[in-house]
Every structure is written in structure tokens, then in C-alpha cells.
Design brief:
single chain; alpha/beta; 7-stranded mixed beta sheet; 3-stranded mixed beta sheet; 5 helices; 12 strands; about 25% helix
Amino acid sequence: MDKDDIRRRVRARKSLLTDSERINSARNVFEKLEKLAAFAMSNRILIYNSLPDELSTREFIDRWVGKKEFYLPRVNGIDLDILPYDRQRMHVGAFRIEEPSGDDVTDPSVLEMIIVPAVAYDRKGNRVGRGKGYYDRLLNRSNALRVGVAYDFQLFDDINLEPHDIPVDIVITETTMYRRRK
């Protein structure tokens, strides 16, 4: 199955989710993340600001803001800038995603964990993004632990890699967790 087929299949399945399923799924995934020793040890964490069709990060951010240093991405041309999260400095940016404003761009090398959104993952940490390569370019500039989060139905048996694709180290779904073997 090619990446466009995977994107279509996942989009169709997401459209069937109820609000209750969305909320419960996000809670289950982020509770698993919170139990990781790596999460306890990480202070500087890049997280995505969720779109309506993604696992919601809002409750998770609200629970940990002030206890962890959160950073959010901001689209800058073909790359992502990394800025500290501050609820008072958010604005609607590229692709109608709330992004941080300001000039205090952070080097990705200081991040200890990156929570990566994707359309789909496989058990080896390979991922299908939305097709623009933003996260592949970002992940290539950081040695942070890469954690993918997804609904169970976003997990596929095998995703074909392209040369520019950067896998994640851990994939967490509502019911399972996979660690990539290096």
C-alpha cells in the first residue's frame, strides 16, 4: 500500500470517530507516555499543537505546563522553527494551526523528547506524515528521543521508507507500545 492509500484509509477511519472516542483515545495514549521513564527524565519537550483530526494534545499540555518546558513548532518556509510554548503568545499560522509567535527560536539540539504526529506508523517506527517533510527535516537536526503517538488504526504492518524518512524510536497507541530496534 502506498503512502497516499494509507492517508486516504486513515482519513476515512478518523471521520468515523465520535467525540468520546477521540477524548478517551488521547487520554489512553498520553497516560502511557507519562509512564515512560524517558518522559520523567525529559524536561525540554517538543509537542505538536493538534489539528482536529489528530490525537488531541491540549489536555496533556495543560496538565504538564509549568512542570515541563514545552516547545511547539512554527512553519517557516519549508522548515519548522521551534519556540517555547506560551499560551499568551499563540496565533493561527500556516495550515490553520495555532503556532507560537516571537523571535526566541530554539535550536532543536536542546530538545530531549519530540512527540511526533503522523498519519500512520508501523511497528518499526517508520511513519507516514502529511507529505510535506517538515518533521523529517526537523528530526534530522535533533538527537532527542522521538515518540510517535497514534490511534490503534493508524498502525500498519509495514510502511515503505523513502531516503529522507526519519523513523521514531517509540510508537504509542491506545493499546500498545513499540520500541524501534536500532
